Amino acid sequence: MEKTKLLTIAVIGLLLLNLATLGFLFLNGPKGHRPPMEGPPMGRPKPRTIIIDQLHFDALQQKEYDQLIEWHQATISQLDRNIRQTKRALYSQLMQTEVNLKAKDSLIAVLNGYQKQVEATHFKHFEDIKKLCRQDQLKDFNDLTEELARIFAPKPQGPEHE
Fold it and tell me: What angle in degrees, to the nearest 10, is found between the helix axes of 101-132 and 59-92?
């Protein structure tokens, strides 16, 4: 009788463990098929936080920095919209029986111009951040510039995004 109770408890325990595992997988989904998260990945602080921490901004600098962020995001958002619209026009050329080479080259030149504006906007943003720094923060700013490519690198995308 003792062995039967032990076996029954073990079976019930394994059944509960399997149900818990299935529930976890159902709620979280497989690792490669999760929807993209908003904001930076877990464990990775937002760029705003990194900059404020590394440059030791005081409350006034943080307020001014937030205004710079608003300008930067608004400008980049508008450029991104322009890029998407121009790409739609470019790729709509593929629906034509014969591609208009002048239109294609013109649209590609427009895209190049927008990309140049994006990079110039990013650069100006960091020039403006540098202007916020006090003399004692400039070394920290220079150290930060060496990390910018890593901090603002695009999120890695798997083959399903290509």
Answer: 180
The CA angle 117-118-124, to the nearest 5 degrees, is 85
Write out pLDDT tens, residues 8-63: 777 787 666 676 676 666 666 555 444 444 454 566 678 899 899 999 999 999 99
**Number of neighbouring beta carbons within 10 Å of residue 85:** 12
Q: How far is CA 84 from CA 64, 107, 112, 114, in A?
A: 30, 12, 13, 10
pTM: 0.65
Under 8 Å between Cβ of 127 and 68: no
What percentage of the chain's residues is helix, strand, coil (to nearest 5)? Answer: 80, 0, 20
Domains and CATH numbers, the chain: 46-153 (1.20.120)
**Are the CB atoms for 54 and 145 separated by under 8 Å?**
no
- Calculate ∠ Cα 43-65-122, nearest 5°: 80
**Cβ atoms within 10 Å, residue 57:** 21
The DSSP letter of residue 117 is H
Cα–Cα distance measured from residue 88 to residue 139, given in angstroms and rounded to the nearest whole number = 44
